UniProtKB/TrEMBL annotation:
It comes from Rhizobium loti. This is 2OG-Fe(II) oxygenase. InterPro entries: BesD/HalB-like, Oxoglu/Fe-dep_dioxygenase_dom. It holds the Pfam family HalD. It comes from the Bacteria. Residues 136-243 form the Fe2OG dioxygenase domain. Keywords: Iron, Metal-binding, Oxidoreductase. One of its GO terms (molecular function) is oxidoreductase activity. Belongs to the iron/ascorbate-dependent oxidoreductase family.
Amino acid sequence: MEEILDLDRYPLNREGSSEWQRLVDECKAALAANGMFNLEGFLRPGIAEKAVAEIRPVMDTRSHVHKRMHNIYFKPSIPELSPDHPALRKVETVSHTVCADQIPGSIVLAIYEYEPLVRFLAATMGKPQLHVMQDPLARANVMGYRAGEALNWHFDRSEFTTTLLLQAPERGGDFEYRTDLRSDDDRNYDGVARLLEGRDPEAKILRMKAGTLNVFRGKNTAHRVTTVEGERERMIAVFSYYERPGVMFSEEERIGFYGRAA
Ligand SMILES: [Fe+2]
């Protein structure tokens, strides 16, 4: 892992040392203040390109194309909202997904399963433990976004999302987010409507560099990836960890996300 991750800058392998603790504390502080942290240069120079080269043949020929119209909740309706409420405005998402079972032995999977990373992430999130998923498809995914494609506005299902940007596009494909647009007690539907109409001055854009690890708290922070432009595909690995071991998706979830059950 020494040649893949910059463990000099980010000492994940020295758990319990003062420099490890300092990094955890910085990440925790960033999560509390901004709802995210970024480890730029997490991959050593040249590794993102190598990881992309491993995935590209699968991405080009066997990725699952997901194209759908949806609202920000990914739900057909919200009981307390009339169907024409502007918070339910439909947006389009188009992406290509490569599943973990299609990239055995890859750099991406080696990073996903690297135990010091799993323990470090648990520490930053204030969890006693995290576990890799057992689901052969869902554990780690690589998402591809080509010219004209975007991941549109949504809230996440999980409390934290961990991603690793492998390749940035020439233009567009930026991460845009609106921190704490809602809370567990206040659904703020009018604020949601304002964001969807492009009238929320607090929406921010983050332009990430390839090789950056990002941990993001996306349950109440609306976010999207803007439309990609240019020839180069945006490629990002999405890592799923859970507090309990052995987590699997249901067959319905696998078909819904990946178009196949196994
Ligand atoms: Fe998300």
